[in-house]
Structure formats: C-alpha cells, structure tokens
Automatic annotation (TrEMBL):
The keyword Membrane does not apply. Keywords: ATP-binding, Nucleotide-binding, Transport. This is ABC transporter ATP-binding protein. GO terms for molecular function: ATP binding. It comes from Thalassolituus maritimus. PANTHER family: BICARBONATE TRANSPORT ATP-BINDING PROTEIN CMPC (PTHR42781:SF8), SPERMIDINE/PUTRESCINE IMPORT ATP-BINDING PROTEIN POTA (PTHR42781). Residues 5-242 form the ABC transporter domain.
Length: 260
C-alpha cells in the first residue's frame, strides 16, 4: 500500500528563487508532523503544495500514491495564523456559510432539510472546538483563541483526513496556546487526522508532534541568496531526541542578531 503522502525529489522555484529542493519523504496516516525552520525557508509553501494551491516545479507529491489534486478539496483542511470570517455573520452562521459554499459554490444557499442538517453539523463541530456558548456571537466579540477555534471548526467541516496548520497559535498568549494544544491533540485523536503543522516554537513542535522536520538550506551562496533551496535537514521521531540535538536545532532557528 502506498504511503498517505509521499514526496519524490520535490523542488519548488519561483522564477530564479529556489525555495525547496530535493524533498524525499513518506508520511503515514495518523502521523502528526511539526515543521520548523528559519523565516522564508519554504514551510508555508510546502503546506500550500499539500493543500493544492501551489504545485511542485519538479518531482512528485503524491496522496495515496496519486498526484495531489491541483486545488483544495474537502479531504484537506487548513488553518492560518490570521483568519478571515464574515464580520456581519455570527459564529454559527459563519460555519453554516462555509458548509453552503463547500456544497453549492459561492452563490450557494441551503434550504429546508439541507439547512437544518447544516445547522446541526455546524453546532456539533462548534461544540467540539469549545464554542457552543458562542454560537450567536459576532467575530468582533471573539478573543484571539476563540477566533482560532472558529477557524479550526471551519477546517474540520469537510471531514478532512489531513489537517494543515500554518502557525495557528503564533499570535496567542501562552495560557490560551496551552488550551489550543490540548484541543488540537483531542481532535487529532478523535478524528484520526494526519496533521502537518508549521510552528516557530521548537518546544511546541516537540510537544505536539510525533515527528519533527527542520527545514534548512544545506548550501548557501551569499552572492545569490535564491540560488539554493531548503530541504528537510532533520526528520526526528519525537521522544527520541537527545539534549545536544535539541540545542543544535534551537540555535539554528534563532536569527543571527539574537545570537550576537
Ligand atoms: N506566491 C509566491 N510567489 C513568489 N514567491 C513566493 C510566493 N510564495 C512564497 N514565495 C517565496 O518563497 C519563499 C518561501 O516562503 P514561505 O512563506 O513558504 O516561507 P516560510 O518558511 O513559511 O516563512 P515564514 O516562517 O516567515 O512564514 C520566500 O522567499 C517567499 O518570498
């Protein structure tokens, strides 16, 4: 049986800018991959390739042994750091609208039984993310953590097998982040998701993931910063990492100014 996700010598370039080079990886269903790396090294680009909004420039990115579809689908949900919702709609209406769009396209409306089913489904998902008390609130009435809970609810609507998280908790306070960590771990287990999560926080990466990837450039040309791309320089099963390796990764992630 093919791996759920397989990258075979994947490259991504934008014009002369080589962003990713030679990615070769296999990911099995149910893994929780956390991804760290310096700013601009292509982590979001890789997530977008999994989502289907970006394509490889060279190589193959496979889902169940077939090329990933060239557009987002219900099997892949995504949560970004900043999320946009309809400001004039309540929490419940926003989730129902996402359902209607997924079903009927941008002009879609749901009526009768379909509308009632969408409402039940939206309420259930909002309950799972801990927003059952906020169904009738408007986005401007939500805290940062509540907004991200809403974003997660939207991402889960299509019953995805794969959840893509692009620094979803980067803007949240530490206490709220801890609550969100527990939520994500609960949803990952409950829905048997395969998760790919970008984070700037190495500790978060080690806490949440079953496997941690470090994106970095193996070669650099100071005269031509875009000449070489990043690859996955560490692929670590979480829980089996010694202190020295952790500190080495941590040092590499910190900007040069901070180390000076
Ligand atoms: N649509 C695009 N067109 C051209 N260049 C792009 C595009 N998207 C990303 N890039 C470039 O690709 C490189 C990688 O960007 P990407 O956002 O994937 O990095 P990142 O590792 O996620 O960074 P950060 O941690 O800061 O979010 C950057 O040099 C960026 O300018």
């Amino acid at each position: 049986m093919p791996s759920m996700i397989e990258a075979k010598n994947v490259w991504k370039t934008y014009g002369d800018n080589v962003v990713l080079e030679g990615l070769d990886i296999k990911v099995e269903e149910g893994e929780f991959i956390t991804m760290v790396g310096t700013s601009g090294c292509g982590k979001s680009t890789f997530l977008n390739m999994l989502l289907g909004t970006q394509q490889c420039s060279k190589g193959e990115l496979l889902l169940d042994g077939k090329p990933i579809p060239k557009e987002p689908g219900p099997d892949r949900g995504i949560v970004f750091q900043q999320y946009s919702v309809f400001p004039h709609m309540t929490v419940l209406q926003n989730v129902m609208a996402a359902k209607a769009f997924a079903k009927k396209g941008l002009t879609g409306y749901l009526f009768g039984q379909a509308k009632r089913a969408a409402k039940d489904e939206a309420s259930d998902i909002l309950n799972q993310v801990g927003l059952s008390h906020a169904l009738n609130k408007y986005p401007h009435e939500l805290s940062g953590g509540m907004k991200q809970r809403l974003a997660i609810a939207q991402a889960l609507l299509g019953k995805p097998r794969i959840l893509l998280l692009d620094e979803p908790f980067g803007a949240l306070d530490p206490g709220i982040r801890a609550d969100m960590h527990e939520l994500v771990l609960t949803l990952w287990r409950k829905h048997k998701l395969t998760v790919f999560m970008v984070t700037h926080d190495l500790k978060e990466g080690f806490y949440l993931g079953t496997r941690l990837w470090v994106f970095d450039k193996l070669r650099q040309d100071p005269q031509a910063p875009g000449a070489y791309g990043a690859s996955i320089t560490y692929d670590l099963p979480v829980g089996q990492v010694d202190k020295a390796t952790y500190e080495e990764i941590d040092d590499n992630l910190r900007p040069v100014v901070e180390l000076a």
